[in-house]
Design goal:
Layout (H helix, E strand, L loop, with lengths): L10 E3 L5 E3 L25 E4 L5 E3 L10 E3 L5 E2 L4 E5 L4 E5 L4 E9 L4 E9 L4 E8 L5 E7 L7 E3 L3 E4 L7 E10 L8 E6 L7 E10 L4 E8 L5 E8 L5 E3 L3 E4 L7 E10 L8 E6 L4
Parallel strand pairs: 3-9
Antiparallel strand pairs: 1-9, 2-8, 3-4, 5-9, 6-9, 7-8, 10-11, 11-14, 12-13, 12-15, 15-16, 17-18, 18-21, 19-20, 19-22, 22-23
Length: 286
């Protein structure tokens, strides 16, 4: 079905603020009984619905259409520059205007595809979203993914999208919608995902493997966290650290019968450090 161009019917809508929805709110006491947003409670809005023969007819209903209808963005508009915007998340139409305007809201008789589920997999710095859809009158053409609550979107032809370079242990609000081959939009789904916390590497133990009157040899047991251990760092008597890819180290040129403080920490493949572990050992007495 192609989007149609017809003579538009109009109704005057008076606005006194910059942004108004085209759907007046019901009184608070009526909210619990309301199942769909009210269209023309105050008689301000005419809703035009497409008929089986392709023409449009004024609706006598005071609620937005349910079932197989889709908002027609091309036909809907305002004479004096006001902009009609369909809110996918709340399923209402909003009017952006700075004053009085004549506006028209059209809905096509059309079976739009629906997003039925959004699943995710995550790491410390990435989230992958996968969208499940229910078929409509035409196939999905593009998917739109947002990681900032809908402020910006990434377009994709795939139903799976990965956001990288995220912050560990941080909650993101993702939103997803799609368009079919004729440009009709699906519903929008929102999902909150918290990235995994980063786990630092750990030095478990330092073992003295041998010692002489002027040497001390050690072996280090360390384990990775989010990433594996890459580099070992050794210091003796608060001296400068030396690095090594080996978990064993021999300190030489020491004095006999002397107790030395030995410190060790490690870094993982991402350059994240463990906490420092300390032990002491005494060289043999001559």
């Amino acid at each position: 079905m192609k989007k149609k161009y017809v003579v538009m019917f109009s109704v005057l809508i008076m606005l006194s603020v910059v942004i108004y929805t085209c759907i007046p709110k019901l009184k608070k006491e009526e909210e619990s009984n309301k199942t769909k947003p009210n269209v023309n409670t105050n008689g301000f809005l005419t809703l035009m619905l497409e008929q089986d023969d392709g023409t449009y007819k004024k609706s006598t209903s005071n609620t937005w259409p349910t079932g197989n209808y889709a908002f027609n963005n091309e036909l809907s508009g305002c004479e004096r520059g006001g902009e009609l915007v369909y809110d996918r998340e709340t399923n209402i139409v909003k009017l952006i205007s700075s004053g009085s305007d004549k506006c028209y809201v059209y809905f096509d008789k059309y079976n739009v595809a629906k997003i039925t589920n959004v699943t995710n997999t995550k790491t410390t710095n990435s989230v992958t979203l996968t969208v499940t859809t229910e078929a409509g009158e035409n196939p999905i053409d593009k998917y739109y993914f947002s990681k900032d609550g809908g402020n910006s979107y990434q377009e994709s032809t795939s139903q799976t999208y990965t956001f990288n370079e995220l912050t560990p242990n941080t909650t993101y609000t993702f939103k997803v919608y799609a368009k079919d081959t004729l440009g009709y939009e699906t519903n929008e789904e929102s999902i909150q995902v918290t990235t995994n916390a980063y786990v630092n590497p750990t030095v478990n133990s330092i073992t003295i493997t041998s010692k002489t009157n002027d040497t001390i040899s050690i072996s280090v047991s360390a384990s990775g966290g989010t990433n594996s251990v890459a580099t070992y760092y050794y210091s003796i008597n608060n001296g400068a650290y030396t690095s090594s890819t080996s978990n064993t180290k021999t300190f030489t040129g020491l004095s006999s019968g002397t107790t030395y403080t030995i410190k060790v920490f490690v870094k993982d493949t991402n350059g994240v450090s463990s906490s420092e572990k300390t032990t002491s050992a005494q060289t043999e007495q001559i």
